[in-house]
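Provenance

Sequences were taken from public entries as deposited. Structures were produced by running a predictor on each sequence independently, with no templates supplied. The record for Malate dehydrogenase from Capsaspora owczarzaki is shown for reference.
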Amino acid sequence: MFAVSARAFSTSSINNAKVAVLGAAGGIGQPLSLLLKESTLVSDLALYDIANTPGVAADLSHINTKSTVKGYTGADQLGAALKGASVVVIPAGVPRKPGMTRDDLFNTNASIVMNLAKAAAQHCPKALIAIIANPVNSTVPIVAEVFKKAGVYDPKRIFGVTTLDIVRANTFVAQARDLDPQAVNVPVIGGHAGITILPLISQSSPKVTFNDAAELEKLTVRIQNAGTEVVDAKAGAGSATLSMAYAGARFTFSLLKGLKGQKAVECAFVESSVTKVPFFATPIALGPEGVKENLGLGLLSDFEKKKLEALFPELEASIKKGVEFVAKNY
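Predicted structure for Malate dehydrogenase:
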């Protein structure tokens, strides 16, 4: 249903869309850039990082697709990388190691994201900003606050990429019920860390049922902790990079489809009035201005209602942490 192959998203004419990847030389940035290079939706691919991007760009530029690729390195080239971008994807930051939570990354990644957001607000204030850098529950509010301070904030254009939670939910539900994972779609709401990740298995398409409460709880917890599963399996060698690149590419393609006026729906962590917290992930209809319509929660099961109430304190604290960081450090 949501295959990332460029050909699945090809159109009759090339969309003149520049995509900037900030953190392009990293573990997520390189495979993400490879998937973007393949797409006919991308005309210009700008790769930025603090080091090694010229080599990554040279490597990708040899691929025989129509998009052009250019590498940018260092703070003095960041503006050029961003200028004219339709979409900015931010996988920059340090990865998790065994024993770390996403929140443990806050002090390092918060500064990185804030500085990149300052540059984006200056050089491409109308771009759609897709934030992968963790902890997403805090980095999205950071970007929002930076854009507010720059006087260019538009809540419809800033997204936290939670797509990997959906990809994992689709995969695990498909495995549990012997289904084609590409034919499964499970909405995931809330945030992007631990218990703030709430898969709405009751709304799965095709419809699946789990009459055993213990099985449903186990599946939900696995989806919530799947990132730690990868971190532990890599034993200090990194976090989820390949699956995150896949999910990030899928989300970027959906943003580009929306820019072209084509139908596109993705779950994303955005400014929201759907619940009592100011940012929340729900299914979002995408359009030329970014968020076209917030599709809300849908009908929740009793199990999901309890999980929803339980996630609010942690999510609210993470959002507040991001807002306060900008207030103290901008």
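The first helix runs from residue 29 to 38.
The chain has a mean pLDDT of 94.
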